[in-house]
Amino acid sequence: MSPRLDEVTARLGGIAYGGDYNPEQWPEEIWAEDIALMREAGVNLVTVGVFSWGLLQPAPGRFEFGWLDRVLDRLHEGGIAVDLATATASPPPWFTTRHPEAALVDVTGARRSHGARQAYCPSSAAFREATVDMAGAMVERYADHPAVVLWHVSNEYANHNWHCYCDASAEAFRHWLEARYGTIDALNAAWGTAFWSQHYGDWREVLPPRAVSYHSFANPTQQLDWWRFSSGEHVRLYRAEHEVIAARATQPVTTNFMSFWKPLDYWDFADAVDLVSNDDYLIVDDRDPAERTAMAADLMRSLASGEPWLLMEHSTSAVNWQPRNRAKAPGELRRTSLQHLARGADGALFFQWRASRAGAEKFHSALVPHAGTDSRVWHEVVDFGADLRKLGAVTGSRVDRPRVAIVHGWESWWAGELDSHPSQDFSPFAQLRRWYGALWGRSVGVDFARPGASLDGYDLVVVPGQYLVDDAAARVITEFVAGGGTVVITWFSGIVDEHDHVRLGGYPGAFAELLGVRIEEFAPLLAGQSVGLSDGSTATLWSEHGRTTTATAVLTYADGPTAGSPALTVHGHGSGHAWYVGTELSDERFGRLVDDLLTAAGVEPVVAGLPRGVEAVRRVGGDGAWLFLVNHTGDEVSVAADGTEVFTGRQVDGALALPAGGAAVVHSTR
Ligand code: GAL
Fold first, then answer.
1. Which amino acid residue places its CA nearest to atom 4 of ligand 1?
2. Exposed, middle or buried: residue 420 (CB in 10 Å: 0-12, 13-18, 19+)?
3. Is the CB of 312 under 6 A from ligand 1?
4. How far is the CA of 83 from the centre of ligand 1 (A)?
5. How many whole angstroms separate alpha carbon 210 and alpha carbon 64?
6. Mutate which of 46, 53, 152, 156 to test ligand 1's pocket (most atoms within 8 Å of Cβ)?
């Protein structure tokens, strides 16, 4: 990825503010009002055309660009820049009617119909060709349009069609496997096909992991390769359009990611885009939605290698797709936007500009609600736009480099959550979330690290539930510790290699020597069961039979069948330390471990003494520093700070009173 967001923000003259604009859903008379209102709100960037394929190309070979010409011209006259979509997010019904073979096929072999969106097979040659045609027509017409500052390829790849099991996909899968393994023997070895009589004699016999016999399990490596292949197919589809646009246009090209979206390996995808952009929606049933939002934002910054990125979509208030769609409370729009900006976003865009009257998203909030401008949401939109104009100098600055990294790999996520494992309670994502949540609650900055990427510059590295680890990634972690780093590795990590083959000789194979432990047997706990530990605390989900080899046991199991085996260990390696957490510690014991590790690694919070739920993140650039403070709690807090509060212009000397639900940015010179 070459980070090119600065080209966009330079043309906007500050932080991007706006959202998806779907004027095709409205009569033209409304457009003038739209632009006037955008100006009133300080909107400077809108995404146009995401779902316009059917109108722009109403029939094969026939394009109707007139209405889009008028939209772009008007926006430009109004001083609003455009993130122009290639319109290929959803094929029109004529396409699927002409190419029934390009429709999505599910795991049971049933073909899905058009009528919603993303009704296509990611491996369909006809679909790829049609998208390249469409993108080509768009770029030919609009590459030189003065409103266009960014290209938006498709939309949220793999949101509704992550895996397609059709025959064309099967064929593409075989080619992919051939390229990966070279010979059918190598595939047999990697997939362990000596098991259950799965030996393949010819590539033509190889299939996607379609629905298998009842109460059985498809080959795990076949499943893992299927996740790898399918993720790659979406990236390939993206790249085809990206190339067409980049060959003709000078503006950067991107597509919008979806936070922690399991089907797509965003480390790979990030290599393909000119800038990272993301869609992030508040999950109201989440145990801590604000923590989850922060985590997504930190992932995006990590994908962007620490450079600024763009928040392409979030919501002003309720969405329409959760079981119960809570409206955001007053001030929540501002808080959630500022969370992203604090963590490196140089823009806050929303879905969508004007709430639809028809269609499946008519009850989704927007910048202009159904109620019109005489509404709380609209007033908040206008006020926040004014706030953002005061924050323009932040663009291009970077979040102060975190000292803690959490290793997160999609391959390990895929493999770790396959069936036929010791316990269904193992969830790599839950492990990651637990560590992130603890660090977030302590105001400690966190990056996510791609497995195998350099860990230089970090003091503490967390390896949460990384079940699959290849040799190269294991080596990076071992060398990090040898060089003086502190690493903490949690249960069921380092168990298998890249083929999902168990590393023999004692668990956790990839890390047994580094950790100085040798685990002989897993002893997962049953639902509701807990086990006592040597300090009187209890643990759940998992326990193990084993011993330390060279490590020191900090905690052992005190009762049950694993009594005496190590549950928490530390081992000096080189000039660093490697910790092993072999079970799911209680919240209280876990919290103490996190505190101890931070102290041992010398990691400081961004601001000390803040209660959980009050975020503090510093961005630095040029000779300035901006301390972002976001208070999700119901209490006012006093925060140590010095400088000028950007929104109010007030001087802050030593402490700032941050009201309940409030947010502030304190600027200082460095
Ligand atoms: C995103 C999508 C938008 C809209 C929005 C609703 O998934 O990109 O088109 O559907 O969600 O929250």
1. 351
2. exposed
3. no
4. 16
5. 41
6. 156
Instruction: Please count the other Cβ atoms lying within 10 Å of the Cβ belonging to residue 336.
Output: 26
Cα–ligand 1 centroid distance for 351 (angstroms): 6
Cα separation, 502 vs 399, in Å, equals 39
Residue 175 amino acid letter: H
Predicted local distance difference test score (pLDDT) of residue 225: 99
Distance CA 15, CA 36 (A): 19
361 counts as catalytic: no
| Cα-to-centroid distance, 309 and ligand 1 (Å) | 19
> CB–CB of 138/71 below 8 Å?
no
What is residue 3's predicted lDDT score, i.e. its pLDDT? 77
What is the C-alpha separation between 531 and 523, in angstroms, rounded?
Answer: 11
Q: Alpha carbon 318 to chain centroid distance?
A: 21
Q: What is the 3-state secondary structure (H, E, C) of 257-277?
A: ECCCCCCCCHHHHHCCCCCCE
Rounded-to-integer distance, Cα 135 and Cα 115, Å: 22
User: Among all chains, which residue has been given the structure tokens 């919290």?
Assistant: 591
How many CA atoms lie less than 13 Å away from 391 in the CB half-sphere? 30
- List the chain residues with pLDDT less than 70: 1-2
Give the residue whose CA is nearest to atom 5 of ligand 1.
351
Q: Where are the alpha helices (DSSP H) in 529-657?
A: 587-601
Whether 28 is catalytic: no
- CB of 351 sitting under 6 A from ligand 1: yes
Pick the residue whose CA is nearest to atom 11 on ligand 1.
Answer: 351
3-class SS shares of the chain: helix, strand, coil, % to 5: 35, 20, 45
Alpha carbons 350 and 74: distance in angstroms, whole number? 21
Rounded to whole angstroms, how far apart are CA atoms 167 and 204? 11
CB 313 less than 6 A from any atom of ligand 1: yes
The pTM score is 0.98
**Predicted pLDDT of residue 139:** 98
- Name every residue whose Cβ is closer than 8 Å to that of residue 526 and which is 6 or more positions away in sequence: none
- Name the active-site residue from 233, 241, 307, 313: 313
Q: Which amino acid is at 499?
A: H
pLDDT tens digits for 42-85? 999 999 999 999 999 999 999 999 999 999 999 999 999 999 99
Residues 6+ apart with CB under 8 A from 556: 533, 534, 563, 564, 565, 566, 567
Going from the Cα of 336 to the center of ligand 1, the distance in angstroms, rounded, reads 17
CB 241 within 8 A of CB 130: no
Query: What is the DSSP code (8-state) at residue 577?
Result: E
Is residue 479 within 8 Å of 511, Cβ to Cβ? Answer: no
Specify the pLDDT at position 2. 56
DSSP state of 104: -
State whether the Cα torsion 155-306-388-443 is positive or negative. positive
Ligand 1 centre distance from Cα of residue 87 (Å): 14
- Ligand 1 lined by 155 (C-beta under 6 Å): yes
* Helix (H), strand (E), coil (C) string for 494-510: CCECCCCCECCCCECCC
Ligand 1 pocket, 361 CB below 6 A?
yes
The whole-number pLDDT of residue 623 equals 83
Strand partners, 502: 496
The reply to whether ligand 1 has any atom less than 6 angstroms from the CB of 318 is: no
What is the chain's length?
670
The CB of 364 under 6 Å from ligand 1? The reply is yes
Q: Phi and psi at residue 624, in whole multiples of 5°? A: -115, 155
